[in-house]
Amino acid sequence: MSTIDNLPPLREVIAAHQLSARKSLGQNFLLDLNLTAKIARQAGDLTECDVLEIGPGPGGLTRGLLSEGARTVVAVEKDTRCIAALNDIAAAYPGRLEVINGDALEIDPLAHLTPPIRIAANLPYNVGTELLVRWLTPPEWPPFWQSLTLMFQREVAERIVAQPGSKAYGRLALLAQWRAEARIALSLPPGAFTPPPKVSSAVVHLTALPQPRYPADAATLSRVVAAAFNQRRKMLRASLKGVAPDIEDRLTAAGIKPTDRAEQIPLEAFCALAREIRKS
Ligand code: SAM
């Protein structure tokens, strides 16, 4: 018997439904239900929330979210083989789990959710990064979600929480930290997964701020940051040449030395620069 609910242990679920992990779908499963409950707890108080879970697989994290009291879980899974196993969980938690068989990059699950909404996922890293960027760059802020609790490759997690002056600092850190509070909540060794991936992982928890930390136009800031880090070793007066004709003056007006490099510039100064460029 597993410890968090009355459903069978995940190894039995995987054997019964023949869910051998597929590399093409980035499948590295979490089979320890105490660990998945611990990850679910990183998402905060779920009792009043709908949780959007992407990539539930055999349902380890799904069971963690439900046993931790999520009001409702909407789980989007691409692998049709997993759906029967997920429906067994839905039957054990009547009215609290909706399973959607589809590609999270293509479907819009918003119609299935009622605010407040939190998002939790252990996804293949490429899909996770693409969804993170989408969730961080909606047309309006605050976004539809209150928090994101996401598993990443450790190196990607470090890029999300990175500070100026480090190699990991770049577009992802600025996007995440401009309008959210981001921290690494848990670190996991490869052995926590079946099969184990090559690298360590970490759970990142992001909380949406009610408004951006510093004022800036989202599209301008995004353009400036993309150009600055595209050529991160160059001086800003060179890497940002294409962004504004009088870039040296704009940099100076924003309090940035034109000879500085992107890696040294804090978020506040990038926002000041975006405002200066918008003025011109
Ligand atoms: N959440 C489960 C766990 O922690 O054991 C499974 C994690 S496994 C790393 C990633 C899961 O995401 C797999 O079940 C895979 O089939 C699913 N997946 C991959 N790409 C997806 C996509 N584009 N949309 C929805 N699910 C996807």
Structural descriptors:
single chain; 280 residues; 7-stranded mixed β-sheet; 11 helices; binds S-adenosylmethionine
Characterise this structure.
- It contains eleven helices and nine strands.
- The strands form two sheets. A seven-stranded mixed beta sheet has the order 4-3-2-5-6-9-7, sandwiched between helices.
- The termini are far apart.
- Helix 2 (33-42) packs across helix 3 (60-67).
- The model has no long low-confidence stretch (mean pLDDT 96).
- With 280 residues, the protein is α/β, with parallel strands linked by helices.
- The protein has helices spanning 10-16, 33-42, 60-67, 83-92, 125-136, 154-161, 171-179, 218-230, 236-239, 247-253, 267-279, and strands at 29-30, 50-54, 72-77, 97-101, 117-122, 147-153, 180-188, 193-194, 201-208.
- Helix 3 links the parallel strand 2 and strand 3.
- The site of S-adenosylmethionine has 24 residues, from strand 1, helix 3 and strand 3.
- S-adenosylmethionine binds next to strand 1, helix 3 and strand 3.
Oligomer: single chain
Strand line-up in the sheet with most strands: 4-3-2-5-6-9-7
Compute the gyration radius: what is it?
21 Å
The span between the termini is 66 Å
Please, how many helices? 11
Summed over residues and divided by their number, the pLDDT gives a mean of: 96
The outline comes out as elongated
Small molecules held by this entry: S-adenosylmethionine
| Low-pLDDT segments, ≥5 res | none
How many runs of DSSP E, i.e. beta strands? 9
Query: What proportion strand?
Result: 15-25%
Q: Mind describing the biggest β-sheet?
A: 7 strands, mixed
Name the helix and strand elements from N-terminus to C-terminus, one letter apiece: HEHEHEHEEHEHHEEEHHHH
Structural class: alpha/beta
What level of helicity do the residues show?
A: 25-40%
